[in-house]
Amino acid sequence: MKQILLLSVILFYSSCVIAQTNTFEAQAAIIASKIDSITSTEKSALKKALKKLDKKVEQNEMTSETAEIEKKKLANYYAKRINEAVHNEEQNLQTLIRNKVSGKLELNEDENEEDTAFITVFEDENFYKDSISGLKIEKRFTTQFVLAFGVNKILNDDSGYYGDGFKSNILGNSELGFTFKYRFKEESNFLNLKFGLSMMVEDIRPKEDNDILVQNGDETTLQDIGFDLKRSRLDNISIGLPVHMELDFSKPQYHSKTEQTYLRSQRGFRLGLGGFFAVRVHTSQFIKYEENGSKFKLTETDNLNINTLSFGPSAYIGYSAVSLYAKYNLNPVFKNNPEDINILSVGLRFDIN
Fold first, then answer.
1. Signal peptide location in the record (predicted)?
2. DSSP letters along 208-240, please?
3. pLDDT digits (tens, 9 = 90+) for 286-313
């Protein structure tokens, strides 16, 4: 009953909001706001363009005379844009008045988002609406939600020091976090700096189910626990700083109604090259076993001489929001063991705007 009542309230409120947006006053206010936004936005764009010309003059890349000519061209260009855009909105206002007089009142919706991504997280932060065309324009500095998971492969564990060694764990590596991306050029998606903050989880499992990691002084070895285990694993949790140079091969999009081209990242192939630096914040060893028909789970928290810091190269290649990634820990897992082991991870990565 409560759910039905809540749903009824939501539907009623939604209908009221929709009805309000259909009123003459509401639509007239929207048009007035657009006209004001057009003027301020275009003047701001002109101011930025003029500053760029002044900078070129200061750096002796352009003479003062040439700059003055270009400034006049820019002033005429932006004045024309303002006049055309304001004229269009005035036409919309006249149409609204006619509809009001004749008893017809229709919503004036923007037809602009045929290319909206299937999943969006930071839509409001990553885009702004063009004051004239109404198109959503992607900002140069954007934020993404990152989810990655894949296979962990322990390298150099075949010397005998670690017994039978470790398994290649199908879901032994995962990452969850945020990245910030800066597009170097205003008019091109191609070159980007991407950096962020992530929680990184590594799951390391011995090949022999009955083996566990044991700390002997400054060294850590694999030893048989002496009874049957259903599962044995080591979990490492780190906070990492991934940094990549990303090449985005997405082509400019074209909007047929406005005949305008605009940029959208993550609409084509992407390649990222870089690395990561991480600090371990938690380590625990988990075992699961049965005894006398009862099931037991034990978790032991200990650093086991594992290196606090980890770092190494990483890369990814993919299409749209999905990519294949690989990363390699340059420093060994354990601090003082005579035989060093390293981790190679390969898997799927999702970058969601």
1. 1-19
2. STTEEEEEETTEEEEEE-SS--SEEEEEEEEEE
3. 999 888 888 888 888 888 999 999 999 9
